[in-house]
Amino acid sequence: MKLLGTLNPENATEKEISDFKERTAVRAIIFDSENRIGILYVRKHKYHKLPGGGVEDKETEYDAFKRECLEELGCNIEIIKEIGKIIEYRKMFNLKQTAICYLAKVVGEKGKPSFTQEEKDRGFEIKWLSIKEAFSLLNSDDTENKEGKLYIIPREKLFLEEVVNNH
User: Fold this and answer.
1) How far apart are CA 90 and CA 42, in angstroms?
2) How far, CA to CA in Å, does 19 sit from each of 22, 88, 93, 126, 143?
3) Which of 20, 48, 71, 130 has the fewest CB atoms within 10 Å, counting from its CB?
4) Alpha-carbon gap, residue 36 to 119, rounded angstroms
5) Please, are residues 59 and 74 in contact by the beta-carbon 8 Å criterion?
6) Is residue 132 exposed (0-12), middle (13-18) or buried (19+ Cβ within 10 Å)?
7) Which residues pair with 65 in a beta bridge?
8) Which CATH topology does 3-166 take?
9) 55: phi then psi, degrees, rounded to nearest 5
10) Rg of the chain on CA atoms, in Å
């Protein structure tokens, strides 16, 4: 899978990285029948993000992707293609995360999400927007949340740029 970029804004050293826990996560750029994508607003931290999450034990990336889309968007999906991956060295969590993004489309009707309690506490809210509108929101997000500012927003912008420029 194509490497789209590496995020290391906290300047983790090779030695520090060698001790980081590793995690694989999936991200989704999902189009509905009106050519809009699903994006989540995290009200508590005032930023937007693509739906997705971590791959759980004994779960394939594809299965995690389908599960996350159903949980966070309330949608069944069909994967169209791989977009790429981004490596994140999150010194704040001693974590090396590989974020894998897929392009997909909604299959059937959109349902309701089943957010976890943590997601509810953070104020998750779904928005269906054009890619241009999603870029605009990401560019205007002014979060003070360190994870959002250093990792989530830059990662999502890289994934969206890849779709706009190459798919």
Assistant:
1) 20
2) 9, 14, 11, 36, 29
3) 130
4) 23
5) no
6) exposed
7) none
8) Nucleoside Triphosphate Pyrophosphohydrolase (3.90.79)
9) -80, 125
10) 15
Query: Of all helices (H) and strands (E), which one includes residue 22?
Result: strand 21-31
Whole-model pTM: value is 0.93
Domain locations along the chain: 3-166
Instruction: Determine how β-strand 37-42 pairs with β-strand 124-129.
Output: antiparallel
How is residue 145 written in tokens? 């949340």
Give the model confidence (pLDDT) of 114-159 as tens digits. Answer: 999 999 999 999 999 999 999 999 999 999 999 999 999 999 999 9
What count of Cα atoms within 13 Å lies in the side-chain half-sphere of residue 133?
Answer: 11
Amino acid at 42: V
Question: What are the helix (H) ranges across 6-130?
Answer: 14-18, 61-73, 117-121
DSSP annotation of 51 reads: S
Count of C-beta atoms within a 10 Å radius of residue 96: 19
